[in-house]
Prior knowledge:
By secondary structure, the protein is an alpha/beta fold. Helix content is 48%, strand content 9%.
Amino acid sequence: MVSESLGETAGTVVRSAISQFDSGNFDIVRVPYIDSIEQIESVLEEVKKRHAFVCHTLISPDLRKAFNKRAEECNVIAVDILGPVLSAIENLSGLAPKNQPGLTHMLNREYFKRIEAIEFAVKYDDGKNPLGLLKADIILIGVSRTSKTPLSMYLAHKGLKVANIPLIPGITPPEELFNIKPQKIIGLIVDPAKLNEIRAERLKAIGLMSDASYAKISCISEEIEYSKAVMRQLNCHVINVSNRAIEETAHMVLEHYFKVFGSN
């Protein structure tokens, strides 16, 4: 199995084919990261010596053409797994392929990175386990109903591990929060009148009186002033989420994060 990348596609095809045979022992040799004619010739000599056949998932048109031509000259059975499919798609769609090896592997890696980040956001939501703060890419802090959880999930879909901590007057934030780079911490604040509106709607939705202390403007103002004091102590980046969609706030968080830590 010959590939410019890891050879996982060829491996899947070959193993599927072998499963159709009840008897016989088959040796599979994977030769990854092929990038030259010299490597191709070396592989084909080995294949001929072993009386084997070769299949490949070469993406580069030049390498693919050279491989198929040289295999024919060596009288070696060669199966071009991707070539015919690429040609069919190109002919039908009129689009040119990227001819970039390893894209499937890259897509899989990004997918699993997102899944891991989503699981992380759920596990460390709402201050459930302060130890998660040390593993997080970003920590969101703020009073109740400042969109910490939905923002955490949105950022997780971008592949970032996010934990969030509620700030409640009278309850000291976890010690771990003060041992983290302040650039990783994002403080979320909101205008008292807007938060009063949000909390009143929340109370109404769950069947409680909207004049509970949770939604009183005086209590809200006290909470917000307390949260601002904590944020000043942490010297973290602060975003006012009043009248901002989750997507807009997320963009601001990502802009800050990549500016400080880079895209990697």
